[in-house]
Amino acid sequence: MQKFKFKDFLPALILALICGICVFLLAGTYSMTKNAIAKQEEEGAQERKLTIFPEARSFETFQYSDAISSELAQKGIAPDEVYTAYAADGTLLGYIFVNSGFGYAGKIVTTTGISADGNIVMVIATAASDTPKLGKEVEGRPFLDGFTGLSTDSEIVLNRDVSAVSGATISSRAATGCINRAREAYQLFKERGLI
Prior knowledge:
This protein is of the alpha+beta class. It folds into 2 domains: 52 residues; 139 residues. 43% of the residues lie in helices and 21% in strands. The chain has 4 helices and 5 strands, in the order H-E-H-E-E-E-E-H-H. Strands 1-2-3-4-5 form a 5-stranded antiparallel sheet. The protein is elongated. The N and C termini lie far apart (80 Å). The relative contact order is 0.12.
């Protein structure tokens, strides 16, 4: 029977030590940068809201009950976030819905502005992890401007109401789905007398 010596375990111990140091360094880096990342994301969200409603002076989180939240979830149209946009004099400008979905190769997040009278004001999309020059093209104004002015009264159909991005049909469909979910949530709020 062969006896194990300390030097036989030395490579494994060194590797475990290196892994432990790496984990410690990664955790430290995360804790040092998480607040800066959160602040940057918050500033980006505020910038998107102001791009949609430049005359707005405040954005308030739209409040609704747990029962409405459950109904939205059951219908598969629950938005990630909803805000109400107000002008400086307190006039209601509209609503902002943030929805997310999965495109061809990554997450797509849409920020949809809907006016007080129920028309789409503007859509901004981010597809940070989608395929460059294909899926990321849904971020472009040529595609997104097709939604501007559309009514929330009926479903938006890709390649009928809005043209898909050539070569990025899956991501175009995902973005359109996000916008349709925002539209449906708006309609549900309207039916329940919240809007």
